[in-house]
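Just curious. Protein, please.
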Amino acid sequence: VQLVESGGGLVQSGGSLFLSCAVSGFTVGTAVTKWYRQPPGKGLEWVSTIFPNDSQYYAPAVKGRFTVSKLNAKNMLYLQMDSLQPNDTAIYYCTKDDIRGQGTLVIVSS
């Protein structure tokens, strides 16, 4: 199983970023997958979960601003992040069970 995140970067407050996660070793269409983030100096925070039937759940801090999705045909996961705020600054990880990728860094400047 391997997950590889991409799409992070530096963005101004109020801006948007689109994160991608390339998956191998399992099928996103049949797995429960999650996004987590780790702010500087803090622990992992759950961000979102997407189920095989496309049901989605979000942490209160990101609900209404972030949208998780997947493309079964390409075995990809995505996280659209809008209205970004400085406290969204973190390394973002896509995960399956206890396996995660190397992460992608998102920095939101004020």
Notes: The chain has a mean pLDDT of 97. The longest strand covers residues 17-24. The CA atoms of residues 34 and 49 lie 4 Å apart.
